[in-house]
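worker-3 :: picked AAA family ATPase
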Amino acid sequence: MTFKPYKVQAVAQLLGATTDSVRRMVDESGIKVARQDSGTKTRMFSVENIFDLARFSATKKTKKKRGERKQVVATVYAPNGGVGKTTLSGNFSSCFSLRGLKTLTIDLDFQAKLTSSLGYDSELTLEEAAEIGKPPSQLVEYHFGNLMPNWPLGRRTLDEVVKMPYGENGPHLIPADLTLDRLDTMLTTEAPARRMADMAISKLLRDGHAKKDSHFDISNYDIVLFDAPSSKNRITRGALLASDYVICPVSMEKYSTKALSYLSSVLSEMHNQFGRSPELIIVGNFLDSARGPVMTQLSMIMQTYKQSLLDYWIRHSEDFAKTLDNEADVPLVLSKPGCSASSDLQNCAAALLTRMQVTNA
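worker-3 :: tokens ->
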């Protein structure tokens, strides 16, 4: 994916720092930043530079030993569509990495919208890509199913599957495509017991975090973030059971009491059956305080789900709306770091990290 170079002012906005501190970080880290071909020799940062600086800053601040870090698993999920779920997944994963956190984002939607939004083509074959001159690195050969033990088409390692759209220190992606449907079929029909199928993803993550699975070593990640489809299939159920938190976006433009009520009942059923369920975090989206019905809906959510509602929400913005209409757009926080919607996204991401008790590095 190609980005226009960033000037130091935009980098400071993305990192929540001053321009002077950004310049000091560059000097201290030794990270190579290109300079503009002009008399001023202005530094022009690549997107990889920015995530490298974020990681450098976070590593410098912390004195924790790596083995003491807590890994958090969360699923972005809403029972209804049109709430900005996938857009928030891409932006939150970028925001987490901009705070120096090692973030693994897993696309579980067969439609692969998150995968597409991060610059990868899930539809083309290698032969078709060669005909139009698209590099193989932009294609999707493997997905989350290929990482599961006993995958019928041959298991792959995380290194073979993972994508790094913004470099080593940006968010990492396990992409999706239409053939991910096979995983749902496998979990539904081939598992010897329903409970084992439901807990298969939990076991995969648990073994991966403990370094017991050489194919899926995720021990170096601070956050694992699933982007789950609205349909509650076996994959989504497994992701929810594997998660510490479920982040549920709610559209303030067309709030559905049924959607939140349904999700609450699903979580209650999980807890009754398995003795655990993810903690619910509600993120209000498309908030327009000038519209009376919107504020009424927000009040209703606060009355019923006060403990679950995040203290920050995302206001309605034309900049934000455009990302929903164009799958090829990059995360808004990276494409327009100075706009109000990007500020809302950054604030929400910070509030999420606080709620999930995640600390840098």
